[in-house]
Design a protein that fits this description.
Helices cover about 70% and strands about 0% of the residues. Helix 2 crosses helix 7, helix 2 packs across helix 13 and helix 14 runs antiparallel to helix 15. Pfam families: BPD_transp_2.
């Protein structure tokens, strides 16, 4: 007579190692697919050093908005006011940079964004206003305030106007001479895979603005603070079970205030990046919906720093496509088709989800047919790519997402027990 025995779960370190190798294989697969598409179509512009450098610049504002959303929602407060806080950050960066230089301008962007975050915290944490209603109000206030402040402070300045301030100094850029030159030379050879790897290296070593380095560094800092410190553990407990956290002596309201204010500061830095690096100055409303895309990147990343970084890079790349030729975008139709078909195979073999596998395979087939039946895509489609990618990715990733349990819930002090 046989007996049933429970199979112990693999240790955490073993699971982490398995995830590491899985993501490494996925990354290699994507690299090979991109290289194959580039060679087949002849659209070498899809991953030249210049294209990837433009993608990095487009990534940073989205990444900072997503990181701001992570801080807020891990404490249980939904922050769709990221767009308005980014807009405030653009004005703060312009004003403080004009008078005090770019590094003070970054602090000014964080300060104005933090003010927007504090307003959201006041409404949601202190007064218990619905998080969505408050976020929408912050977006409206941010846009209106930036227009008013620009007209009040920039209209009479050199290079200024009622809606703009140009000629701002940018933080310095750095280049690693030997590594950069060698990588660019290899990228120009257009070899299979090797040139693609060289393009990535060249993008990260050639004329990289120090503010870009700061944005990526903040991802690591946030991951360490939120997951490796007691402060981060208490903050995340406020987003999972605030009543239990309060019963253990955690000042839930204070932690929520800190998280939402920090969230606004992160979004403000993203707005400052737009004013100081991505463009040559401030223009009212220049965020162009990136706060919402950052929110989508946060959801796609499953409220995790590594996932947020991956999602932001992808959205940043699609956002930068509007600067590329329509031929390069047409080549990406083939890449999307390959990705969808590969995902369908994985669904069928790994998870045995036949219906979903068929849906993804059909979608991949449609993209392949689109690629084969056309020679180019309309110029207007290039501007749609970041928003289309947002919809597709969220649709594909929806089943594996797990938001903090108390995210979006109104919390009242003393409700524990």
């Amino acid at each position: 007579m046989s007996t049933l025995t429970a199979t112990p779960a693999p240790p955490t370190s073993q699971r982490a190692g398995q995830n590491y190798w899985m993501w490494l294989l996925v990354g290699l697969g994507v690299l090979v697919a991109v290289s194959a598409v580039r060679v087949i179509t002849g659209a070498h512009e899809i991953d030249t050093p210049g294209s990837l450098r433009a993608a990095l610049i487009a990534t940073c504002p989205i990444l900072m908005a997503a990181l701001g959303g992570l801080w807020s929602e891990r404490a249980g407060v939904v922050n769709i006011g990221l767009e308005g806080q980014m807009i405030l950050g653009t004005w703060g960066a312009a004003y403080f940079t004009y008078y005090y230089g770019p590094w003070v301008g970054i602090l000014g962007a964080a300060l104005l964004g933090a003010i927007g975050g504090a307003l959201h915290a006041l409404a949601t944490v202190t007064f218990g206003v619905d998080h969505i209603v408050s976020g929408v109000a912050i977006n409206i206030i941010g846009l209106g305030a930036s227009k008013f402040l620009a007209e009040a402070y920039f209209a009479n300045l050199q290079g200024g106007g009622v809606r703009q301030l140009t000629g701002l100094d940018s933080p310095p850029s750095v280049t690693i001479p030997g590594l950069s030159d060698g990588a660019v030379a290899l990228a120009d050879q257009r070899w299979f895979v090797i040139s693609d790897v060289a393009s990535v290296v060249a993008a990260f070593t050639t004329r990289v603005n120090l503010m870009t380095v700061l944005c990526f560094a903040l991802v690591g800092v946030s991951a360490y603070v939120l997951w490796k410190t007691s402060f981060g553990l208490r903050l995340r407990s406020c987003g999972e079970n605030p009543q239990a956290a309060e019963s253990l002596g955690v000042n839930v309201l204070l932690y929520k205030w800190v998280a939402v204010t920090t969230s606004g500061a992160m979004a403000g830095i993203g707005g400052g990046f737009l004013a100081l690096v991505a463009s040559s100055g401030f223009v009212t409303g220049q965020t162009n919906g990136r706060g919402y895309i950052g929110l989508a990147a946060m959801i796609f990343g499953n409220w995790r720093p590594s996932g947020i970084l991956t999602g932001s890079l992808m959205f940043g790349y699609t956002d930068s496509l509007r600067l590329r030729s329509t031929g390069a975008i047409h080549a990406l139709l083939l890449l999307v088709a390959i990705g969808l078909i590969a995902f369908a195979v994985w669904k069928l073999v790994k998870t045995r989800q036949t219906v979903q596998a068929i849906v993804f395979a059909v979608a991949g087939g449609l993209f392949l047919l689109w690629f084969l039946a056309t020679d180019a895509v309309p110029r207007e489609f290039a501007g749609m790519t970041p928003y289309l990618a947002t919809l597709l990715v969220l649709a594909f990733a929806s089943q594996r997402l797990r938001m903090p349990k108390a995210d979006g819930q109104v919390y009242r002090k003393g409700s524990a027990g």
